[in-house]
UniProtKB/TrEMBL annotation:
InterPro entries assigned: AB_hydrolase_1 (IPR000073), AB_hydrolase_fold (IPR029058), AB_hydrolase_sf (IPR050266), PcaD/CatD (IPR026968)
Pfam families, alphabetized: Abhydrolase_1
Protein name per UniProt: 3-oxoadipate enol-lactonase
GO molecular function ontology, one term from the record: 3-oxoadipate enol-lactonase activity
Amino acid sequence: MAFARINGIVLHHQVVGPTDGPVLVFINSLGSDFRIWQEVVPAFADRFRIVLYDKRGHGLSDAPSAPYTIDDHTADLVGLLDHLKIERAALVGLSVGGMIAQRMAVRAPERVQALTLCCTAAKIGTPELWAERIAGVENGGIEPLADNVLQRWFTPLFRETHADEVAGWRNMLVRTPAHGYAGTCAAIRDSDLRPDAGRIAIPTLCVAGDQDGSTPADVVKGTADLIPGARFALIDGAGHIPCVEKPAVLSTLIKEHLQEAGLV
């Protein structure tokens, strides 16, 4: 584990793998920390220098006052890469992490070698949906929302057959700072990346879970259609967090995409 002060806040991060390998950055979803990638990282640790980090408001990173913007999150990623002296990287972003990756590809395209956009979109939800979510968190915390979130994160089969594991991921979710969670909800609410999607000229793979209750497959496919040359892949039997539910399948898709991008 390591900590660095970036843009005035402390970011928790970890770097694994060979120091001379191509860089692969994993960016987390709303309400999660970088432990969600623990079953995916081993597939790449022998070849890639892997960067994992908790975005602001999550995990062991600082949670400054809300609200946040996608540009805040993107600036944090740029600052962390600068701190680590990393010039270019392939990005794998899940949910809001995928929005950060999209923004990075437009804001600093020279620093992005490939994109895997997992269970995400250029526009997620409606302002009304996010206003309701923010109000709920501000009034009662994350606990009252947790079970509904988990129903979107994981399929019924996974929740039934991995009850203890789901309980652990629930602990991660509810222990996220409420204002950090709400601050990132505001970032999603206020972001519409569709006007810039056509400017992304980086090899892109968009991945959806067939039972994702947060970013349904047709929404993810709609974003793939906006990005020139982007490919779309569907994971059967997965909800919103396939890196937990179907890590081997997701790892294979990412690896094939990186091979096509010339990084493997």
